[in-house]
């Protein structure tokens, strides 16, 4: 085996990880650039890789009335276990009901509305102009909704949402008077838009509202189109920077920003309130233009939710509106753009959707597509029918407990992140978290370079590992983001299991994996990755020492290439990565090196019964490296 390990530094590694945004490069990946991105990358992509971890799913299907804290989604973040424990006492109607954000009639809390909230525990309400008469009236209405919701859910506060875009779309005009449109705001530049977002957040917060259904990230066509002054600009680059800036201002002011209308309504033909518009661009143009503002905003982590519009995008899905489309929501938004946060529909009774579907069919289709929240102006009778239909779908198994748990986890996480939990819920969450911390092990590195607490539970995801690892996990009370980044970088399927606790390596705090080395950057809230055999230089192992070890232990390469290479030693391996040399004969084995490890299969002279095996880079580092003993010692 030939080792070619160039000198490695973390800055070069960051640059190597970054990719530009283009469909032929699989959408948006974890690219560097910007303090906001560095601080929130993991939060933006919390769940994007969950579907890549099939072994985390229990053998028996999870039912909607079961303990949702056992769902596969909890493996993406330890906090999801505790958040889903909050719904243990909820009925199925409340669990599926919490996937709805409702329009309401009237200007005051009524007995009927209290009953609906108690029975179905909606995630929140959205307020229209018809609900707003004045400041005191609105505050009273919001207080009543909040009290009813917290009572029904054991302290989980509601989303109180409204359209406060400015210009022609301002549900609070009775209170605020006229406000500038996005097109007008564009003239004040990025800094001015951030300031406006912060000012708008202060207005909303003072009225008890916590979600603004803005900013619009659509591109305005040259003739204005349907979107008109609601869009910041006619160029993708301007919309990208200004929509992100406004979302930043809202978030800084404690308001959940909602990026809309994915995957781009501005240049679609038609108004979704009346017909189903069509965004007929080919895939390249979609990525280069319409999707760009969404992709760049999602990189920063600013949006709290993404609203999916009622637009047909034939290049992605020629059959269903985006809001009801698995290829758009689960495929394009989740997997290609990597968004792991809350996805909400546009108002689901618009004619673009309701013309051909009843309310039950539309709601079910949206959840099947991967949406987490349904925004709809249901009448009380329609609301009851939708909740009944979703509960029945649960009973039949058409709506799985996993789907409900995943949506609820995202919703509850967002609420917790924005401080929407009442004291009774917050206290329970803290108590459950403390229980988990008492099971961890204290760790102090030599010289005081790194300290923390480390959890001994065995990881339950990923492919079989060569040998028996110590069973470390990738998290402590200060390093939850370590685990999120690990998942975002490919998780066990790409990097293998952890082989150590976190430990000090010079001035770095790192953790050894089977397939690489993670460096924790606490001030940025993210991880850097040194992948595969590159980690050997990082931990002070020379290429010569590494080659000597693999040769001595039966993993080195032989002489002549074994041509053609067997299929099981192909040019690319899903766990080991790309091959870095040819397959060669070595004694009884055919050996091939890869980026993250070495694979070998029995050769023609092998002992009968011999099987394929692999040796990953992390185990080579363990055999050759010098690590703090308490970082790698087997757990009791």
Short précis:
This protein is of the alpha/beta class and 636 residues long.
Name some characteristics of this structure.
636 residues; alpha/beta; TIM Barrel; 3 domains; eight-stranded parallel sheet; four-stranded antiparallel sheet; 24 helices; 37% helix; disordered N terminus
CATH topology of the largest domain: TIM Barrel
Query: What fraction, in percent, of the residue positions are helical?
Result: 25-40%
Structural class: alpha/beta
Task: Give the name of the CATH superfamily of the largest domain.
Answer: Glycoside hydrolase, family 3, N-terminal domain
The value of Rg in angstroms is 26 Å
Shape: elongated
Tell me the major beta sheet: 8 strands, parallel
Mean pLDDT: 81
Beta-strand portion reads: 5-15%
Which sequence of strands runs across the widest sheet?
9-8-7-6-3-2-1-10
Low-confidence stretches: 1-59, 443-470
Number of strands: 22
Cα(first) to Cα(last) distance is: 37 Å
Under CATH at level 1, the class of the largest domain stands as: Alpha Beta
CATH architecture of the largest domain: Alpha-Beta Barrel
**Helix count from the secondary structure assignment:** 24
How many domains? 3
């Amino acid at each position: 085996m030939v080792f070619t390990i160039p000198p490695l530094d973390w800055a070069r590694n960051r640059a190597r990880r970054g990719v530009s945004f283009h469909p032929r490069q699989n959408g948006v990946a974890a690219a560097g650039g910007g303090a906001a991105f560095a601080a929130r990358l993991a939060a933006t992509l919390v769940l994007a890789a969950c579907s890549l971890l099939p072994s985390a799913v229990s053998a028996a299907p999870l039912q909607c009335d079961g303990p949702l804290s056992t769902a596969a989604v909890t493996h993406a973040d330890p906090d999801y276990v505790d958040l889903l424990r909050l719904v243990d006492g909820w009925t199925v109607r409340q669990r599926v009901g919490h996937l709805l954000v409702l329009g309401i009639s009237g200007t005051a809390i009524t007995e009927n509305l209290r009953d609906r909230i108690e029975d179905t525990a909606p995630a929140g309400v959205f307020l229209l102009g018809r609900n707003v008469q004045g400041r005191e009236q609105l505050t009273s209405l919001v207080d009543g909704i909040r009290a009813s919701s917290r009572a029904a859910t054991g302290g989980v506060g509601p989303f109180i949402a409204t359209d406060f875009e400015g210009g022609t779309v301002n549900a609070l005009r009775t209170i605020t008077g006229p406000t500038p449109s996005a097109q007008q705001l564009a003239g004040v530049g990025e800094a001015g838009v951030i300031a406006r977002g912060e000012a708008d957040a202060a207005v909303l917060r003072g009225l008890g509202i916590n979600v603004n259904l803005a900013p619009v990230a659509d591109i305005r066509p040259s003739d204005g189109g349907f979107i008109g002054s609601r869009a910041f600009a006619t160029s993708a680059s301007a919309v990208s920077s200004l929509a992100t800036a406004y979302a930043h201002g809202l978030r800084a002011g404690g308001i959940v920003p909602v990026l809309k209308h994915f995957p781009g309504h501005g240049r679609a033909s038609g108004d979704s309130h009346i017909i189903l518009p069509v965004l007929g661009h080919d895939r390249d143009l979609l990525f280069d233009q319409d999707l760009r503002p969404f992709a760049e905003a999602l990189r920063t982590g600013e949006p709290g939710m993404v609203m999916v519009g009622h637009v047909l995008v034939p290049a992605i899905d020629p059959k269903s509106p985006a809001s009801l489309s698995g290829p758009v929501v689960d495929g394009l938004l989740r997997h290609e753009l990597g968004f792991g946060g809350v996805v909400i529909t546009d108002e689901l009774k618009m004619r673009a959707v309701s013309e051909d579907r009843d309310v039950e069919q539309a709601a079910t289709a949206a959840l099947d597509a991967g949406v987490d929240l349904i925004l709809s102006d249901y009448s009380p009778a329609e609301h009851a029918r939708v909740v009944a239909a979703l509960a029945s779908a649960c009973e039949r198994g058409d709506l799985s407990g996993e789907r409900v748990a995943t949506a609820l986890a995202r919703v509850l996480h967002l609420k917790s992140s924005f401080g929407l939990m009442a004291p009774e819920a917050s206290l329970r969450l803290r108590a459950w978290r403390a229980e988990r911390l008492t099971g961890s092990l204290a760790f102090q590195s030599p010289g005081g370079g790194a300290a923390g607490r480390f959890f001994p539970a065995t990881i339950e995801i990923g492919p079989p590992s060569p040998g028996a690892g110590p069973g470390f996990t990738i998290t402590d009370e200060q390093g939850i983001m370590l685990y999120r980044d690990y998942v975002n970088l490919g998780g066990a399927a790409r990097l293998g299991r952890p082989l150590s606790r976190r430990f000090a390596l010079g001035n770095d705090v790192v953790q050894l994996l089977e397939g690489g080395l993670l460096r924790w950057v606490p001030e940025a809230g993210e991880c850097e990755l040194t992948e595969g055999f590159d980690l050997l230089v990082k931990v002070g192992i020379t290429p010569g020492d590494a080659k000597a070890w693999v040769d001595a232990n039966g993993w080195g390469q032989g002489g002549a290439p074994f041509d053609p290479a067997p299929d099981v030693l192909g040019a690319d391996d899903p766990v080991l990565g790309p091959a870095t040399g040819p397959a060669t004969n070595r004694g009884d084995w055919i050996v091939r090196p890869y980026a993250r490890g070495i694979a070998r299969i029995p050769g023609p002279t092998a002992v009968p019964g011999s099987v394929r095996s692999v040796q990953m880079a992390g185990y080579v580092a363990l055999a050759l490296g010098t690590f703090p003993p308490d970082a790698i010692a087997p757990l009791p």
